[in-house]
Write a structure and sequence with these properties.
Distance between the termini: 106 Å
Oligomer: single chain
CATH superfamily of the domain at 204-320 and 389-451 and 498-572: Alkaline Phosphatase, subunit A
CATH architecture of the domain at 204-320 and 389-451 and 498-572: 3-Layer(aba) Sandwich
Number of helices: 25
Strand content: 5-15%
Helix content: 40-55%
Shape: elongated
CATH class of the domain at 204-320 and 389-451 and 498-572: Alpha Beta
Structural class: alpha/beta
Largest sheet: 9 strands, mixed
CATH topology of the domain at 204-320 and 389-451 and 498-572: Alkaline Phosphatase, subunit A
Radius of gyration: 29 Å
């Protein structure tokens, strides 16, 4: 008897060690797969650490992530062992049979994890690996069988717990009941953190931003597009400005412009992620509304390229914390076991940097971010609310957890917009359910568009070129080199890369009033800018503010006017590494080309554009003025001389010689005067021609 008991204990210990060994091998295998699949991302992480010397404050989330992963796989071993031992206890299995049951249960659990990850997170590196061996139909059926087998073992394990408790002393039984009761009570306990309701007649101001959304990819503007029914329904009842131009086709600078009501030239935010220490943001839309009693909230499902902070006038920031870890953990977070946990309550606690984070696209579920918004909004209350939320699904790489098909970039962008449309509808439902639309001004906008290296995505085509006596001999070569056009002169790629790409700079801009005097429904033609949002909203609310660059559009929204008066609208490019000008973006090369441009705040982990780089890169900017159907753009050459390009958007004709009859018949002089006055020495120092 004693020998049998001793043998059983040895086998029990041996089982645990075997399971621990197998789990360690499983983890090592996963690391190997990730190294093969994401070696570029890992290399970039090491490069960042080497070049920038990340502080422990920044590295701590990465270290914590590694520790949690190790603990998770250790718990996986413990649970596998514990379930096996409890089932064996109930079934009175011998030591040898318990050992074999444990090994079998472990393998079944591992396969179930891999199959579930394959089906749920199709962009996972392990999903790709599994799909190459086992098709999805077989994976589904195999998963069902495995879960059935595991369910039987777990059932016997539960019976084993009951058996153990019943065999125990009176004290053990009583304490078990008490513990179960406490855990049950806690599971149903919810803390009421609602903000006191404040009666108000002031309408809520709700801004819904959608990243990289081209108007011509929305069904309302393009009848051939059928994938945006919910957004279309909203726009049909809105006042839509069809020729809105973003000042810079990048997220942070575009949002900064409409929040300040000033062009980047005047608000000092000329590049993405610039430092905010020396910026004067007291008169942003958020800060003005806060002084009027509004509670201001900003939320986004991705913060990598947007450092919108509380300094812009927000009481609360919803979403992931902006940090370099968005880049690092977003790349590395792809272990099957943690993937299955990340979108749960446990996952939100264990992986706060990846939960509901668009940057971690492998596990990003659009509905989870809506869930986060719903939860946060419930506790805001019903006092006047300034709520600005930015959805990033249509931004590169156009992927999320359940996007299955591998398509060309253009099609993936189209699918991402379709998914965003459902996200938009879900968010509107959240707003309605919380009565935030009972009395509200809603602004829907896109920060910029997107281009894909396709013909026609740039306003200049060789066939429409008007050559003059002062034209450059190698004009096509020079312009192509500057813009990264890949063999197609009238093409462009990305956003913020070319001021003559209307598809990059044209953005969605719609206003709609809920619960009171309605807005005019329909389209308003004529050039406007995102800087017009702030004065429009403030005038709508009857709030006076300091002057900026924008003009109020309220008279059009109320139906007093049908066409915007002609005015000069300015646009410029952002810092653009050649690696992201291409149709197929190289993240590794982009990082290499950006290392000397960005720095990391060692306290906050924020990625910040270097102050020294601003002055260095300003001469490389393209600048343009839009006026009526005309565009006058200046492209810097390799010697910082400016190449002028004058385009008629209506006919497609263009020239680089401002002395041609074509140029003389255009509104060249007022446009030239306006852009010189606006940019000052940035233009006049390098261009003096007429």
């Amino acid at each position: 008897m004693i020998l049998a008991h001793s043998h059983h204990r040895k086998k029990d210990s041996s089982l645990f060690l075997w399971l621990l060994f197998l789990t360690a091998l499983f983890l090592v295998w996963q690391i190997g797969v990730l190294l093969c699949a994401k070696g570029e991302g890992i290399f970039m992480g090491l490069l960042l650490d080497h070049r920038i010397k990340l502080s422990m404050t920044i590295l701590w989330p990465d270290i914590l992530y590694i520790c949690i992963q190790l603990l998770l796989y250790f718990l996986f071993t413990v649970i596998s062992w514990g379930v096996t031992r409890l089932a064996a206890f109930f079934l009175n299995l011998s030591a040898d049979r318990t050992f074999y049951l444990g090994i079998l249960f472990w393998f079944a659990s591992v396969l179930a994890v891999l199959f579930a990850n394959q089906l749920m997170y199709v962009n996972s590196s392990f999903s790709d690996l599994m799909y190459s061996v086992i098709p999805s139909i077989l994976a589904k059926s195999s998963l069902i069988v495995l879960l059935g087998m595991m369910g039987v073992v777990i059932f016997f394990a539960v019976l084993g717990i009951i058996k153990f408790v019943l065999r125990g002393s009176w004290a053990l039984k009583t304490s078990s009941i008490i513990v179960i009761g406490i855990l049950t009570a806690l599971s149903f306990h919810q803390t009421d953190r609602s903000t006191p309701i404040v009666n108000t007649k002031q309408p809520n101001v709700i801004i819904i931003g959608i990243d990289a959304l081209r108007p011509d990819h929305v069904g309302y503007y393009n009848a051939q597009v059928k994938n945006t029914p919910h957004l279309d329904a909203f726009l049909k009842k809105s006042t839509n400005f069809t020729e809105s131009i973003t000042p810079i086709a990048r997220t942070f600078v575009a949002w900064s412009s409409f929040l300040t009501g000033r062009y980047p030239k005047h608000d000092g935010i000329r590049f993405n992620l610039v430092a905010q220490d020396n910026l004067h943001l007291s008169d942003t839309l958020g800060n003005i509304l806060r002084r009027q009693g509004y509670y201001a909230v900003y939320g986004s499902d991705e913060m990598r390229f947007s450092n919108i902070s509380q300094s812009f006038g927000f009481d609360q920031i919803m979403g992931v914390k902006p940090s370099i870890n968005d880049f690092i953990l977003g790349e590395f977070n792809d272990f099957p076991l943690s993937n299955l946990l990340i979108n749960t309550k446990v996952g939100s606690f264990l992986y706060p940097d990846n939960f509901a984070n668009r940057a971690a696209f492998v596990t990003y579920e659009p509905k989870i971010f809506i869930h986060v918004l719903r939860k946060k909004i419930k506790h805001i209350g019903q006092r006047p609310l300034f709520l600005a939320v930015h959805f990033c699904l249509p931004h590169y790489p156009y992927d999320w957890a359940s996007e299955r098909e591998r398509k060309d970039t253009f099609s993936m962008y189209h699918d991402a917009i379709s998914q965003m449309d459902q996200q938009f509808q879900d968010y509107m439902t959240v707003l309605r359910d919380n009565h935030l639309l009972d009395n509200a001004i809603v602004v829907v906008l896109s920060d910029h568009g997107e281009t894909f290296g396709l013909s026609g995505e740039r306003m200049v085509a060789k066939k429409n070129y008007i050559k003059g006596s002062r034209s450059r001999r190698d004009l096509f070569k020079q312009v192509s080199a500057l813009t990264g056009a890949e063999g197609i002169f009238d093409s462009s790629s990305g956003h913020g890369t070319d001021v003559l790409s209307y598809q990059q700079y044209n953005n969605v801009l719609a206003f709609r009033r809920f619960g009171a005097r309605k807005n005019k429904q329909g389209n308003i033609s004529g050039l406007v800018s995102l800087v017009d949002i702030k004065p429009t909203v403030l005038r709508w609310l009857g709030i006076s503010s300091a002057s900026g660059d924008g003009e109020s559009l309220l008279s059009f929204i109320r139906g007093a006017q049908n066409r915007v008066k002609s005015r000069m609208i300015f646009a410029e490019t952002e810092f653009t590494p050649t690696a992201i000008r291409a149709h197929d973006i190289s993240i590794k090369n982009a990082v290499f080309q950006s290392l000397d441009v960005f720095r990391i705040d060692q306290k906050t982990g924020h990625l910040i554009f270097k102050e020294s780089a601003v002055k260095k890169l300003l001469p490389e900017k393209q600048r343009a003025v839009y006026y009526k159907n005309w565009v006058l753009a200046f492209y810097p050459d390799e010697h910082e001389n400016l190449i002028p390009l004058l385009v008629d958007r209506q006919t497609g004709q263009w020239t680089d010689d401002l002395t041609t009859s074509f140029a003389r018949q255009s509104p060249l002089l007022p446009m030239l005067s306006a852009i010189k006055r606006f940019y000052g020495a940035e233009i006049t120092h390098h261009f003096s021609g007429a």
